[in-house]
Amino acid sequence: MIEVDNQFTVNVDITAIPGGYAWTYSPGAIPLPEGVSVTPAGVVTVPTQSGSWKITYSLSSAQFQLFSVLINTNPAQATGMCDFDQLLEVDAIPGPLPDVTEDVLPSPSTSTATICFANNSKTAKPVGISFQLLARTVVGSHFITSPDPQVKNTGEV
Predict the structure, then answer these.
(1) By residue range, what is the domain housing residue 87?
(2) Rounded to whole angstroms, what are the CA distances from 41 to 30, 49, 70, 145?
(3) Higher pLDDT residue, 34 or 82?
(4) Sign (positive or negative) of CA dihedral 77, 80, 86, 92
(5) Against a cut of 0.85, is the pTM above it?
(6) Could you tell me if residue 70 is inside a domain?
(7) SS3 of 86, please?
(8) pLDDT tier at 127, thresholds 50, 70, 90
(9) CATH code (residue 99)
């Protein structure tokens, strides 16, 4: 991973619901760094011109593992969150798939997906990056795609 000025963790929770999966997000540490917010829908906001950021999404689960990040490159779908020049790096550490039997789930393990962005726009223009987190079920390795969380700055100087 690259060196950044600021970093923090966002906890991810995936719950099976009828017809799909619900993704929720919460701060990994309280208090959050000054000027930072995390919504339950996964939108992370940091202060403008506050230096580079590393945001790690962490999932601790016996049923699911994060394994990749998909950057949304369609500006129409990304609702303007398409500042790819600010994107520094993405990374995912899924961990190994455990050997499981059909009637016994493994112990919980932690998997992560990380997004680093520069946040160095010289204007007060908001920086935003739209993406999806990809997860898999531990048993059966079914793919699960998150709704569209975002990382952005406040657009205020």
Answers:
(1) 6-153
(2) 18, 24, 17, 14
(3) 34
(4) negative
(5) no
(6) yes
(7) helix
(8) low
(9) 2.60.40.420
CA-to-CA dists, residue 143 to 17, 75, 113, 148, angstroms: 15, 24, 15, 16
> 81 lies in a domain?
yes
Looking at per-residue pLDDT, the higher value among 75 and 119 belongs to: 119
- Structural domains of the chain, count: 1
Query: The tokens 């969380």 sit on which residue?
Result: 149
ω before 27 within 30° of 0 (cis)? no
The pairs formed by 129-132 with CB atoms below 8 angstroms and a separation of 24 or more are: 129/71, 129/81, 129/82, 129/83, 129/84, 129/86, 129/87, 130/71, 130/72, 130/77, 130/78, 130/79, 130/81, 130/82, 131/69, 131/70, 131/71, 131/72, 131/90, 132/69, 132/70, 132/72
Q: Which residue has the higher pLDDT, 67 or 86?
A: 67
Tell me whether residue 1 is in a domain.
no
Amino acid type, 1: M
